[in-house]
Amino acid sequence: MSDISPEAPWPPRSAADFPRLSGLPAYVFAQVNAEKAERIAAGEDVIDLGMGNPDLGTPGHIVDEMVAHAADPRHHRYSASRGIHGLREAMAEHYAERYGVTLDPETQVVVTIGAKEGIAHLMLALLENGDTVIVPSPAYPIHYYSVVFAGGHVHSIPLVGDEDGYVVGDALLSAVEAACASTWPRPKALVLSFPNNPTTLSATPELLERAVELCRRERLLLIHDFAYADFSFGDSEPPSLLQVPGAMDVGVEFFSMSKSYCMAGWRVGFCVGNTAMVQALTKIKSYLDYGIFQPIQIAAAHALRSPQECVGETREVYRRRAEALVGALHAAGWAVPEPRATMFVWAPIPGEYVHMGSMEFARHLLREAGVVVSPGVGFGREGEGHVRFALIEPEDRLREAGQRIAKALMRKAA
């Protein structure tokens, strides 16, 4: 007997006719992207600061390492879904040297095809239908969508920052405790990400320590997205979750080569930490992929083991870009906070435009200034009232974007 509901359209007419996809929220960036494409096709000069797609080239020594192995036919065969041993070993060495954390490359490190793939498949491995995951909002969309894909439910809690650009830990952890007390069945996992995309908020070591303690007490799995590990503009570097004593009892951390090493298109990430969670992801990946092209993995291991000056140089580029854009927006009369981390500027919508909402305000900037930004609502309900600028253009173009926006705001005021 067929298990297709008699009410279901047959044959299917769109992706929305498939139940798992129909449960996904609307892709709120689609409308802005469509208008952007139309204007570019019409020959307009659009400054696209929407998607966080790094424009800086991968450092030459990393590219050279990949090229040196790409022609070898031995590397043209299937690789290992969990990543080659040399790359997993290089990641373990990186954590030992950088954070003083000991990882077993055989059991506590798995290579992922970027952090997004890893997070999505980890949720698929960990969750059963109906499980609840606590996700602070605003958040990088995969933190929500991965839960939905796996048949789970998202319990959203607000992410609040202080004037210094740090998340307010008391508010965050109190909200987690309240969610555990009021939700049935009890939540299974908590997702954190610091430095945070889109808000640029950072975390203190003390906050991560308290989060680990809370997760142990409430029997929560802890997943930390550490994609911007190298992107702090302050005096102290962002703490790793795994530096917290006992963190590996309850959690894992995702690290990505995309931003730190300008390797976004290479798709290399890692899940490290709790053995059972890493092995769950390793097992599910063994059914789903054959790993990344081996010369890319060899080059990634080379990047991790080479002198790290290129990482500092990349961070400095983004710091100067943030300074250029924020300065231009301040000159326009838009009081935008300076980011203390990441490659983004998270901007509250000017008061006279708040009534528009972030989607319509983003469309307004595209129409009136030729500047693309991401509407804050695309990062969750608490993102409403903000837009996100990605620092993916040179300083002069960012200043030009600020000047264009200034003219658009002045026309409104007039």
Task: Summarize the structure in words.
With 414 residues, the chain is α/β, with parallel strands linked by helices. The protein folds into two domains: 147 residues, Aspartate Aminotransferase, domain 1 (Alpha-Beta Complex); 246 residues, 3-Layer(aba) Sandwich (Aspartate Aminotransferase, domain 2). The protein has 14 helices and twelve strands. A seven-stranded mixed sheet has the order 2-8-7-6-5-3-4, sandwiched between helices. Strands 9-12-11 form a three-stranded antiparallel sheet. Helix 8 links the parallel strand 5 and strand 6. Helix 2 packs parallel to helix 13, helix 3 packs antiparallel against helix 11 and helix 7 runs parallel beside helix 8.
